[in-house]
């Protein structure tokens, strides 16, 4: 799996608290090893975000991403609270 980070993701990541940054990195490592791990709650999005997916970092923090060719390439698009990313 090749993971790429969109500039919007990088900008949002910089704004996270140090604890949330650490947790996000840990969860991305879990995602890299198994994108279908039940802890991630990986799910498809609907409406204006159709075609994208999301997984949970914490109860309120989400990572929005796009997967290409069955997780061969993953583009991390955004990270933040539920209200910030949707």
Written overview of the protein:
It is built from three helices and five strands. By secondary structure, it is an alpha+beta fold. The protein has one domain: 2-Layer Sandwich (YaeB-like fold), CATH 3.30.2310. The longest helix is centred in the first third of the chain and has 16 residues, at 18-33. The protein is globular, with a radius of gyration of 12 Å. The N and C termini lie far apart (25 Å).
CATH topology category name = YaeB-like fold
Determine and state the CATH class: Alpha Beta
Radius of gyration: 12 Å
Uncertain parts: none
- Tell me the series of helices and strands, N- to C-terminal: EHHEEEEH
What percent of residues adopt helix (DSSP H or I)? Answer: 25-40%
Our measurement of the CA-to-CA distance between the termini, rounded to an integer number of angstroms, reads 25 Å
List the helices and strands and how they pair.
Blueprint: E1 2-5, H1 7-14, H2 18-33, E2 43-44, E3 53-56, E4 61-68, E5 73-81, H3 82-85
Parallel strand pairs: 1-5
Antiparallel strand pairs: 2-3, 3-4, 4-5
Task: Write a concise synopsis of the structure shown.
The protein has 86 residues and is α+β, with helices and mostly antiparallel strands. It is 33% helix and 31% strand.
Core attributes:
globular; alpha+beta; 86 residues; YaeB-like fold; 5 strands
């Amino acid at each position: 799996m090749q993971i790429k980070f969109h500039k919007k993701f990088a900008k949002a990541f910089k704004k996270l608290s140090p604890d949330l940054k650490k947790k996000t990195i840990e969860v991305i490592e879990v995602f890299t090893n198994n994108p279908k791990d039940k802890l991630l709650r990986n799910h498809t999005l609907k409406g204006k975000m159709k075609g994208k997916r999301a997984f949970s970092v914490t109860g309120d923090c989400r990572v929005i991403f796009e997967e290409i060719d069955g997780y061969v390439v993953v583009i991390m698009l955004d990270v933040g609270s539920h209200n910030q990313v949707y």
